């Protein structure tokens, strides 16, 4: 007798699980239920629809082969029945049926199931600000949201916008509004940094500077108090520190799992309301599977429950559920949190823990920051990439990696090489020996991914005494105190302009001349060595070491100082 | 008492080992010996110097911070002594000294060592063809070679060139000569494919077509018999199949380890003449280390001895040797063979075994070929990438991956994600679940790297009945036999021109209409389904399956057919 599979939710995981199952069990019945008739869309594409890079909403609903994935598509091509504009009111686990309500007619009905899939996804947080319901305040999750925002900006009536939340969606939307529509955009983030939990300190500064340089205001550690309107339309956003004029507000202040019906049915949730599943994506009820934004899966770096609301996770989990519905034994062990985001000139990407999250998790961790070429330095089209590596000090275990680069694919090529290893507790030497594809147009013989591990080892062993670019910035700001000597180890021609600008404060001693000119460096001051990326200053430090002289080398050098927007 | 370290060879591994050691043990003595005074250069950059993309030879000898790495550089910056234009005649392991000869004066001397590093690299094969010593016949390993080739082409006297050998260097030089100098270039390769052992069949066809389309002739399975000259200069190359006019011949027919002095000293070599080392890079004499092109290290996929003559391997091994010379315990477990090469429009990259090498190694293996977008299909700047995955059938172990793409960084981002896993015997499901950095500008929610594993699973389980593009090409060539029906499952507008060109032979049944129009497909013929990349044809096959009809879906679809240069 054919099985009845009911899938609640038809955006990402639901359709994947349904179609995978039908491929394996073409004789069985699958019904997919969604509150909207806009189903099976690429929600991650919404910022690119807002920007206009994606022309029509239909493109987000299309297969790669240009067919709209609507109810008819699923019926004809997949033999999956879709109940659109239908809400699941409750799940009766004893009777194994769901109570549904047609949102158009209001009629209710019962639907029996043998196996149930919970794919309800997540909903954007809408904090109860005064003014949250004004016209012009949008969330950014559904195609309806996308359409509303695009219509507002296309109408030309928006000259200022506020994005509440500096996570992925918030930043992507901010870039879209500012870059493609020329709208003065501000990001207000309650945490003290953008991309909290994803990006380490050095990279945060690079990313933030990239946004600011491109006329996006970034206000971190700042709380929205209320939204003020005029004639029912949003007019300004009031934070605890300022008032920002805006005709458009996009709420991107996090999401929460859509798990009310699961909770009501007695399915086990964690304290944050996410459904707990095993590695077969089964809930506490073995006939009920769940995945995507509404579940928690293990964070394979910390071993604790993780929350990875990403379309890529949903798709892979959906396939696992489809296989298991058909009696297979597919596993989804968890995730390490691999991500990427495109800003203006810079792209950022990472995997695993940031230094801040590693310390918070109780690891005795250190962060190493390097700037280096993304391919052979003699190959004409090389670019300087920045990488941060987070390492547990006593074990030398690599906990995470983040980077920024103007070339996103090249950056992702390094992040992807480390990400799949993170769950196996790689050691620094595994990254030192990492075998990435080499040829001068694609990598260096000693690639930056190997270098960042080598530098980390030198730092851990006390062979490389470093200074973060922002520590350097503070010391430079306090230069009048006279406690530091700043030595530029680049070629004299590179140092020239700063030597002229800061006579007596900025010394030029190129690496090549360090040995001869050591006595020009005062012995009673902290010596700060700087160069373009940190290589010359490290080499200079080694020469000083050989003569019993101590120094600090600025990690990432002028490249990082400049990218972080520090004044010098 | 300070140790004396002697390093034989100063190109890649030698300097790396020497400098790493000096950082750890600044009080000890290091002497580095080389037959040339052109030392520590990026040999992998030679093709880009030949092309002119790298302007001067000095750029290949520079650090990333623009200092020439000559003997003086090593003395001043690294406190490493270099004996250039000096040959090591022999090693006396009992007395722990090497006999050296100054190549300028002819004087000999003895040099004692506590530890010795063998970094002699490799030499290009020069088969004893008639005419091999004619003017205009060059190898392509040293900076002297590079200079000679560039001078020849820059003089404008070369209108035809033959590259003997279709490996990495051969192809890179062929591209340089043809692309940047407009020289009619032919590659003659004795094996039946270019990049033998590195690239699987489907990818070979794509890469070969890219070369031919750009006016590089590729003659595989063809043997050079002799080189003919006029007035002492090369005039043509005679193979077993043709005569090719050429004023320039580049010998890139493989390399052999430079291990004569090691052999004479009784150090253990393998049957191919490479030095055997343990995972600390020690030879059979524990006071003698070796690495780079002159050693064999384990192939971590096969478990057998491997040979990876790559600058990237040499650099990483050099660091391990430097650490161990200083009393450390660094390990270099081996390699899986990760590589990349830039051609014309296409780049190729891979790791692990090809299908051909897997079968030769005795694996019951299968190759799966997919074409797919390298980022979200709705993101405007997507490109179609091709991937081949080699899988052991009974265990589902992934043995290797290769790909081609017009965007090299995007391709390498996928190869790098799989390469570091290969040594751990990953299963298909590890690649299905592989967590690569996702965001629409960088990847798909179900990324092509996950897709290739999913397709492989479907093929292995008999759920996806496929045809390689070249199998399709053969069937299409024999279409007059009438044994096959060719069904184009793309939108009618895409199929139109072929339907007109081949009336009655090329059927257009778009996926959307497959269910209704099934009876148009004859039941007594082999049904071949094709689309753009293989997705629509697979979906069409599923519909046919549901109606009990069999079919074959062309892997990679028209994308592969076109890239492989098949006529249709």
UniProtKB/TrEMBL annotation, chains A, B:
Q: Which SUPFAM superfamilies does the UniProt record give?
A: FAD/NAD(P)-binding domain (SSF51905), FAD/NAD-linked reductases, dimerisation (C-terminal) domain (SSF55424), Rhodanese/Cell cycle control phosphatase (SSF52821)
* Natural source organism: Oleidesulfovibrio alaskensis (strain ATCC BAA-1058 / DSM 17464 / G20)
Q: Which top EC class applies here?
A: oxidoreductase
Q: Which GO terms describe its molecular function?
A: CoA-disulfide reductase (NADPH) activity
EC?
Answer: 1.8.1.14
List cofactor names only.
Answer: FAD
Which residues does the UniProt record annotate as the domain Rhodanese?
Answer: 509-563
Concerning Pfam families, the annotation shows: Pyr_redox_2, Pyr_redox_dim
Family to which the UniProt record says this protein belongs: Belongs to the class-III pyridine nucleotide-disulfide oxidoreductase family.
The record's annotation in InterPro entries points to:
FAD-bd_OxRdtase, FAD/NAD-bd_sf, FAD/NAD-binding_dom, FAD/NAD-linked_Rdtase_dimer_sf, Pyr_nucl-diS_OxRdtase_dimer, Rhodanese-like_dom, Rhodanese-like_dom_sf
> What is this protein identified as?
CoA-disulfide reductase
Keyword annotations from UniProtKB, A to Z: FAD, Flavoprotein, Oxidoreductase, Redox-active center
Domain of life (superkingdom): Bacteria
